[in-house]
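Re: that chain you flagged

S.,

Sorry for the slow reply, it's been a week of failed gels. I finally had a moment to sit down with the sequence you sent. For the record, here it is as I used it:
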Amino acid sequence: MEFLEFILHAETHLRSFIQDHGAWIYILLFLIIFCETGLVVTPILPGDSLLFAVGALAAEQLLDLNLTLILLCIAGITGNSLNYAIGRWLGPKVFHYERSRWFNPQYLQRTHAFYEKHGGQAIVLARFIPIVRTFAPFVAGIGNMHAGKFLFYNVIGCIAWIAIFLYAGFYAGSLPFVQNNFKILVLIIIIVSFAPLVYGVWKTRKELKHENQ
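Prediction finished late last night. Pasting the structure tokens below so you have them in one place:
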């Protein structure tokens, strides 16, 4: 519940952090994006809604928009690169790991199917799907995707993801309607972000049920 409360009120918590710690906010944001994209054990960190909230704070001149954009792009690109490298190091044997508190093999299987369907473009598309974006570079590493090809899609996807949500928050965050309904808007972003993943799970279960009949 505390985690959900943080996500829905990210703007408020970040504003308080800025007031208390100043420029350390840039380090905090860098670490959040880096961990979400770079560590397989942290797939549920608030990426989309966080970026939107950060953009809104930049509109209030509490953050430097250009500096934030550069830092978060670096965090996202290096995070994905680390994830890719870990995947190449571990190899296919990771698919046989048992479920634990920090690892859910079902997430990996779903991302693998997504990657197989969309190929290199999955690295870009996955940026906009929570959980999947954490496992996509990992799966690409397991599949020995060419490093240069991965880097290309990694950079394109990261810049697009960060820029879209950051600038959306920057330009929309100053509107009175958005300010008065920020919590609801964040909730909508979360629902829309998770919709493709939920649909994929539902479709997979439906197909399996049909095959077993």
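What I noticed first: The longest helix spans residues 182-212.

Talk soon,
D.
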